[in-house]
Amino acid sequence: MRLRDIPITAWIGIFGIALALFCALFAPFIAPYGETEVVGAVWQEADAQFFFGLDNLGRDILSRLIYGTRTTLTVALCATVISFSLGIILSFIAAVSGGLIDAIFSRFNDLMMSIPTLIFALVVLAVLPQHLIVLILVMAILDSTRVYRLGRAVALDVAVMEFVEAAKLRGEGTAWIIFREILPNTLSPLLAEFGLRFAFAILFLSTLSFLGLGIQPPAADWGGMVKDNKDGIIFGVAAALVPGSAIAALAICVNLVVDWLLKRTSSLKGGRGDA
Prior knowledge:
Structural class: mainly alpha
Oligomer: single chain
Number of helices: 10
Strand content: under 5%
CATH superfamily: MetI-like
Shape: elongated
Mean pLDDT: 88
Largest sheet: none
Helix content: 55-70%
Low-confidence stretches: 267-275
CATH class: Mainly Alpha
CATH architecture: Orthogonal Bundle
Order of helices and strands: HHHHHHHHHH
Number of strands: 0
Distance between the termini: 26 Å
């Protein structure tokens, strides 16, 4: 694949993701002020000193937006990696084993998916201690049900192929078949799905933070920044629109890249983009 073959929409998505990663990695060095530092009056308008103005406590919105990028991306990425690892391993085991194991795993997954995700997360997070690890695990477990559904579908497509049947006849174990036969032949659609689940994790985390059960103050994250400054909209203060726009922009950038990956893998067997 040549660089000139990548469409402009994909380049826009790649640039947006790269910018977010840069902010996340170098937040302490590029942020003008500290994450919790009060530097002026409440909801001060944007000027030459404060590019996006100040928030409801007089903190620099640009600085908190940069620090919030690190928090949001870290939590969303960790949750997505865990959910994908759990969902793919269980779904591939179910697809290869079949029979009772497949039935038990699939019916339990159906049961979990029948519960509204947001309501279930709110109930669990309200009961459990408000800790970052707990938040990541709850997000990962809930999202792994969607990953399981896709993983089982693509694994079943590959599991009936001749080279997989030949591996079973040779006496290869389940782990060998999963990691040497099925996974390499489903990697492209799974990578595209990973991007979709990552975008969903960003939106889901922002929703939880907005409702008060995500990242806890004074740590900055985009959903929490919208929650903190939403009252300013009544008075014509646009402080809540800045992190809201960042959430939308990053989700769009991720989806632009994912759409490009899906188009490249659409001709592959098993390349379904079920979200």
